[in-house]
Amino acid sequence: MSAAPWLANYPAGMPHSIDVDAYASLAEIFNESATQHPDRPAFTNEGTTLTYGDVDRFSAAFAAWLSARPDLSKGDRVAIMLPNLLQSPIAVLGVLRAGMVVVNVNPQYTPRELRHQLSDSGAKAILVLENFAHTLAEIAAETDVSAIIVTSVGDQHPIPKRWIINFVIRHVRKMVKPAALPDVVRWRNVLRQGASQSWNDIVLTHDDVACLQYTGGTTGVAKGAVLTHGNLVANVLQIATWAQPVFDPDKGVVVTPLPIYHVFALTVGLFGFAKLGGHNLLITDPRDFDRFIATLRKQPFVFMIGVNTLFNALLQNPAFASLDFSNLKCTLAGGMAIQRDVAERWQAVTGCVIAQGYGLTEASPVVSANLLDAKQFNGSIGFPLPSTQVGILDDDGQELPVGEVGEICARGPQVMRGYWQRPGETAEVITEDGWLRTGDIGRLDTDGRLYIEDRKKDMIVVSGFKVFPNEVEDVVATHPGVLEVAAIGIPDEESGERVKLVIVKADSQLTETDVVEHCRERLTGYKRPAEIEFRSELPKSNVGKVLRRMLKEEA
């Protein structure tokens, strides 16, 4: 690849590379922050704050409990099925400190999706919020899971707040369904038992696997990106280096509405700002916008991460404009493209420019970002981060000149080791010399800014979450009334895109309601169709391949 023109446009003092050997593991990064400022607030959720010292103590207890289990050992996979709660960072750190591997699980998964992820990863333990334990109960016996830890929403809050929260969740809102699970251990008992055990952090290196972060596949089967401690340490240092010039942890909180089980929030929100000593405000349900805005009103905030749909929804709420934005220094966006209209309205209301970034799970995830103190939205996805190379290739793998459109390829220490137990698919996306073929189509300008033009694959992005048509089609095709089906993404003002199905009936009595109900039982909400069209036939190529692109153009 050619020289890196973006380096000449880095701000003064921004290093061109990071020292990837500065830390051996993610745990070492957090432990440093806990040692340097144990009394500094680290995470706040629903009015309760844990200091760095608190998180260090609780995560050590969880790690000790995991390490004492005879059925668990270093390298074993531990699933975490939680929304943003105070338990979330404790659990992630505890698993890592025990030398085990985090498998992040979307709590909204259906039994089918959960079964696949637990079985594919070979997870031997799982921490699940009791609100979702009924899903696990349906499929636990079909997996290798031997240790099941259940927590309640209020478990990390002090008494009597803990009792009140858990009572309301269970008995007033009735959000906890019965779940028949064997040998369940409660979260608070786990921490109590672990705290009484003598234990030292497991020695880790860059080669140890930190996370199996699941992402969709072109085959329709979710696959785990193997992210090592080396990969994630590198990306945390890249992010922290990029943010440090504009970030002051003493001026207010970092708002994290994206779930920690999403790699963007995991790397940037949890570890990136922990490296900088930041105070993270965890939002459990960002879709409850009235409560979200009321939470923001209670304390100054300096930094916010999110996606286009979240920013757009906040702007639609009249109460949002009445907040105090005087401390807000940066809004970092990822996961999906930012619409210019949203960016301009956000700046008009908050006085803050949205700094758009770009990444993918396979890159831990951040590849590039705009300068965080930018004065205006420019539509690009920014400059490659320190120690990151980017090139634009044609279909033959040849590098294209500046300004020409081709596939975005990235190389750097944050690029995953590969897909879990899928060497064939790994070879398709990582070249022999370490380049990650992203599948996204873009271009570089003369200054080294990166722009996305289109997606090479047929992936649909709903509110920042990837939906692969093959998975949706495979599920819909199991309905006996469906002869053929194609899934495409169509534009949506709120979510960026939504899923549309085009179906050829096998049974003339098949209705839209039948299809919707079929999908509700088998697909997470963001993967379900928002629109269904019935046709007599689907457009196909001369070899019989359904032409999704033609359907999308028609839509």
Largest sheet, strands/sense/barrel: 9 strands, mixed
Number of helices: 16
Order the strands across the largest sheet as they lie in space: 2-1-11-10-12-13-14-15-16
Spatial extent as radius of gyration: 23 Å
Please report the distance between the alpha carbons of the first and last residues: 38 Å
- Beta-strand level of the residues, as a percent range? 15-25%
Helical coverage, percent range: 25-40%
Q: Which whole number gives the mean pLDDT?
A: 93
Task: Give a count of the beta strands, DSSP E runs of length 2 or more.
Answer: 26
Low-confidence stretches: none
Structural class: alpha/beta
Overall form: globular
Describe what you observe in this structure.
This protein is of the alpha/beta class and 555 residues long. 30% of the residues lie in helices and 24% in strands. Strands 2-1-11-10-12-13-14-15-16 form a nine-stranded mixed sheet, sandwiched between helices. Strands 7-6-5-3-4-8-9-19 form an eight-stranded mixed sheet, with helices on both faces. Strands 17-18-20-21 form a four-stranded antiparallel sheet, with no helix packed on it. Strand 13, helix 12 and strand 14 (354-359) form a beta-alpha-beta unit. Helix 11 (308-316) crosses helix 12 (340-350). The longest helix has 17 residues, at 52-68. It is globular. The mean pLDDT is 93.
